[in-house]
């Protein structure tokens, strides 16, 4: 087999490239898209949840798909270039049907605080690299290496903090606002090539990261508050989000582009009512 024939053979099976694939939403998405629509998975993780990464890899393989979990800090342009090159070696060109940006790493605090929670410049740069800029770094690397499959879908993840104020989450809100702008502009640049770039907005879901931030008692209060807020009377699950990502890879979702897709289940509809009529 010639090199060109081998490259074409690699590209016949579509892949999902998922940043933050070892836990939480990213892990759920990896499992979901391996089953439907049936994508091989190249997952990037920082190594904080090594056992989880091994479990994700095993579950994807059990679904009959190939899986490769690659450990790196995905927030840098150097990591994006190296990661995409590593994927190209196993998948071949034009093989990435789905790219999901599911990494988090924001600093929480206040701009004018005099305490340890002061948002210094280093924290701001790190947050924006992780939560926003890295989406562009990986998109640039995918295009440079000719890795996007026909009708590829690029997806960022958004939360509801753009609609409200939560005292110490200014950097999260600001970086997600930047991510939304990146999605819109990349949608314009990639739309003519047949690709789609969108942002999926969903409410609070229970993840290892959330459990790391909140105490068990606080999590109980969090769930109770969301049960009051959400019209469905409960929190959304990572599985529901992940299954919907699978839907977004289908032909039926091909007209979404540059969109912020609301999958919050109406989470913020009752906020004013809850304040005025507690």
From TrEMBL:
Protein species of origin: Myxococcus llanfairpwllgwyngyllgogerychwyrndrobwllllantysiliogogogochensis
A Pfam family of this chain: adh_short_C2
Keywords: Oxidoreductase
Name the UniProt record assigns to this protein: SDR family oxidoreductase
Family the UniProt entry places it in: Belongs to the short-chain dehydrogenases/reductases (SDR) family.
GO molecular function: oxidoreductase activity
This protein's record includes keyword Nuclease: no
UniProt keyword Oxidoreductase present: yes
Domain of life: Bacteria
């Amino acid at each position: 087999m010639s090199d060109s024939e081998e490259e074409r053979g690699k590209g016949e099976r579509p892949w999902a490239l998922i940043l933050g694939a070892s836990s939480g939403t990213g892990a759920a998405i990896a499992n979901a898209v391996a089953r439907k629509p049936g994508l091989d998975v190249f997952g990037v993780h920082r190594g904080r949840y090594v056992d989880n990464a091994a479990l994700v890899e095993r579950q994807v393989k059990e679904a009959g798909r190939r899986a490769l979990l690659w450990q790196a800090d995905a927030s840098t342009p150097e990591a994006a270039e190296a990661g995409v090159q590593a994927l190209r070696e196993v998948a071949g060109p034009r093989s990435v049907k789905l790219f999901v940006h599911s990494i988090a790493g924001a600093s929480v605090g206040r701009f004018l605080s005099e305490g340890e929670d002061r948002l210094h410049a280093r924290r701001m740069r790190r947050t924006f690299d992780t939560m926003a800029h890295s989406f562009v770094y990986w998109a640039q690397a995918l295009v440079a290496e000719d890795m996007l499959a026909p009708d590829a879908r690029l997806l960022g993840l958004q939360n509801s903090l753009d609609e409200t104020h939560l005292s110490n989450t200014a950097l999260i809100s600001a970086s997600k606002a930047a991510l939304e702008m990146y999605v819109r502009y990349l949608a314009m640049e990639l739309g003519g090539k047949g690709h789609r770039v969108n942002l999926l907005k969903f409410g609070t879901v229970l993840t290892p990261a959330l459990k790391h931030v909140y105490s068990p008692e606080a999590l109980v209060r969090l769930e109770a508050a969301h049960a009051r807020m959400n019209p469905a009377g409960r929190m959304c699950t990572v599985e529901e989000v992940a299954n919907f990502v699978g839907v977004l890879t289908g032909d039926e979702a091909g007209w979404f582009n540059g969109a912020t897709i609301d999958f919050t289940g109406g989470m913020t509809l009752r906020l004013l009512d809850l304040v005025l009529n507690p």
